[in-house]
Amino acid sequence: MNMPIWDDRTWRPLPKLTGTQRADVCVIGLGASGLAAMEELVAQGVSGVGVEAASVGAGAAGRNGGFVLAGLAKFFNETVAQFGEEAARAIYRLTADEIQRQAEEMPAIVRVTGSLRIAADAAEQADCAKHLAALRYCGFAAEPYAGPEGEGLLLPTDGVIQPLHRVRAVAQRLRTREVRLYEDSPVRKIVPGSVVTEKGTVFCDSVIVAVDGRLEQVLPELAGRVRTARLQMLATAPAPEVSFSRPVYFRQGYEYWQQLPDRSIALGGFRDHAEAEEWTQVDFPTERIQALQE
Ligand SMILES: Cc1cc2nc3c(=O)[nH]c(=O)nc-3n(C[C@H](O)[C@H](O)[C@H](O)COP(=O)(O)OP(=O)(O)OC[C@H]3O[C@@H](n4cnc5c(N)ncnc54)[C@H](O)[C@@H]3O)c2cc1C
User: Fold this and answer.
1) Does 66 sit in the ligand 1 pocket, CB within 6 Å?
2) Residue 83's pLDDT is what?
3) What is the mean pLDDT of residues 15-19?
4) Sequential DSSP letters for 44-98
5) What pTM, to 2 d.p., does this model score?
């Protein structure tokens, strides 16, 4: 079944855009980024309209691993090497604080559990030591870890999220403030002064494109400069025979899993086993990757 484990099917669809709307800004895509943009527009007192091709969180924002990890995609020691200590420290602080803030604001949706980075071999174990040293040097919490998952690092300020509930909660909050959000309204064209969807048009001064996968369809001028990747996951039935209290990031993040409150496991990865095939706009899982995950 190609449906995220996060979907409890309680969502009441938002209207489709028909006819015309006028706003200062049109936001395209209602995933985590587009909704964050809409919230910021509200905070700044700027009028906005949000349009979504499918439904809120239909993209990766509502179909991901549910890990909330401080810092950037690269490990902290690599971020320091790339951007320098001051920038790496500021980004890590900002993101760790944001995880904490969201956990306080939405405790049923975001939980600070800590995360485990587990090494697959001696080389990764050595990188874990560098990762630990860099975090501690900059004053961030991190501990060496050895347990049933393997050996590596414990990062106590990380956590987990119910990603689809989170974006839906943000959309609901915006709706209670009468912010205009439309689902089932794929953007067909962006022209100066307007965004044209399947059945409507938003006249606006500015456009924010908050689309991750298939960005090259929305902005064809980016074709060749951006490309879409497929990442695959699967979920199990409740598995009371195993117990993982924290999300696990294994083999440089090429394998990852977490156990949910109902004891089922959400797991993903193995993209590196079929890298060329995974640069695709097709979002259906493949037998090869699913077999590795199983
Ligand atoms: C399998 C997987 C696991 C991941 N695990 C994690 C994780 O554990 N932790 C983490 O932090 N990150 C994870 N990520 C990455 C994370 O999910 C993404 O970086 C994030 O969701 C991007 O959010 P977004 O709002 O920018 O884009 P999206 O979630 O892709 O939202 C863009 C929206 O734009 C809409 N859209 C597209 N085209 C149009 C159009 N023409 N008109 C209107 N709307 C359009 C889409 O339907 C979509 O809803 C994972 C990603 C994947 C795929």
Assistant:
1) yes
2) 97
3) 98
4) HT--EEEE-SSSTT-SGGGSS--EE-SS-SS-HHHHHHHH-HHHHHHHHHHHHHH
5) 0.95
Distance from the alpha carbon of residue 31 to the mean position of ligand 1, in angstroms: 6
Q: SS3 letters for 106-152?
A: CCCCEECCCEEEECCCHHHHHHHHHHHHHHHHCCCCCEEEEECCEEE
Distance CA 134, CA 136 (A): 6
* Cα–Cα distance measured from residue 131 to residue 76, given in angstroms and rounded to the nearest whole number: 6
Q: Atom 48 in ligand 1: which residue has the minimum CA distance?
A: 59
187 ligand 1 Cβ < 6 A: yes
Cα(30) to centroid of ligand 1, in Å? 9
Closest atom of ligand 1 relative to the 67 alpha carbon? 8
For ligand 1, say whether the CB of 160 is within 6 Å of any of its atoms.
Answer: no
The predicted-structure confidence for 210-255, as pLDDT tens digits, reads as follows 999 999 999 999 999 999 999 999 999 999 999 999 999 999 999 9
**Domain regions of the chain by residue span:** 19-63+163-222, 67-161, 229-294
Residue 2 has a pLDDT of 80
Q: Give the architecture (CATH level 2) of 19-63+163-222.
A: 3-Layer(bba) Sandwich (3.50)
Rounded Cα–Cα distance for residues 92 and 155 (Å):
12
